[in-house]
Model the fold of this input.
Amino acid sequence: MNPLLDVCQLRTHFYTERGQVTAVDGVSFTISKGEIVGIVGESGCGKSVMSQSILRLLDHTEDVSYEGEALFDGEDLLKLTPKKLRSIRGSNISIIFQDPLTSLNPVYTVGDQIEEVIRLHQGLPPKEARNKAIRMLSLTGIPSPERRIDEYPHQLSGGMQQRAMIAMALACEPKLLIADEPTTALDVTIQAQILELIVELNEKLEMGVLFITHDLGVVAEICTSVKVMYLGQIVEELPTDLLFSNPLHPYTQGLIRSIPRIDGNRHEDLHVIEGTVPSLTDIPIGCRFATRCPFADDQCRQVEPQMETVSENHRVKCWHYDEIRRRREESDHAERA
Ligand SMILES: Nc1ncnc2c1ncn2[C@@H]1O[C@H](COP(=O)(O)OP(=O)(O)OP(=O)(O)O)[C@@H](O)[C@H]1O
Ligand SMILES: [Mg+2]
Done:
């Protein structure tokens, strides 16, 4: 079956005062119908630039250029005319951001905006479009949606603006949803409600989802598979059920260990990956993670590892993955004995 989205060797370059930087460097992946793909990685690893590049949302920045392909329904989004691209965005592909005001227009009511999306893409008459808009608002947990629908974005609290934007993005029932930290700013109950709505549309309409988050708990809950990004590249990709049981990249292991634990000594348990993400103007020549990696040796510092296939759907970019896997198997074995 053809994937919904097929991203191949995507590179995004910015031209800055300090010279050219490549914020996304050779990223390839696919999303099939009904799949929820999680993207994780520390701040600055290129998650947002990658997802925005796919829809060319950075085009307003004059100093950007892309390489590679992002095929959607067989058409390369990176090469479409702005008009064609606009028609795909917001109908077949929706995107939701952490900042709702990038999507909501201050001069129209929330209802006007959601109804327009519904009328345009589903051809519903005005009354039905309004009813559907109210239903969408209510599904995202907005109280009194029949009243809120006639308000302007500035009349809503930040959390409600966020929910209105999510309602708008989901109202057109897109084939693909790109969600960039959509619920980080919301309290846990609302977050759970919105995740449920995304999963429901994913199941009902087989909507594919690219879900960017810092929260590995959310990944475990809703994602089918995970891509771990570091300094503009994917360093490990694996099915979600292997994320906690068999992570092989030292970076993935570090991310997992840095999840705050609710049980017992939260702070003492908190392991933060040492060091910081290197600057894009100073990318290590070998493995990009070598400057922070407890396993790094001369080979790691000098030669870039390739993506290796560990098992079906599990790939990792590390010179030491085999040794790491062997050690884990030995310690599992010792524990069982
Ligand atoms: N317009 C730009 N010009 C130059 N560099 C940029 C530009 N936009 C982003 N970058 C750089 O690209 C890199 C990736 O940024 P990005 O916002 O994608 O990170 P992220 O993984 O989404 O982080 P976060 O988790 O904080 O959202 C960063 O080093 C950032 O400074
Ligand atoms: Mg981001």
Summary: Residues 264-269 have pLDDT under 50 and may be disordered. The longest helix spans residues 188-205. Residues 47-48, 180 surround magnesium ion (ligand 2) (CB under 6 Å).
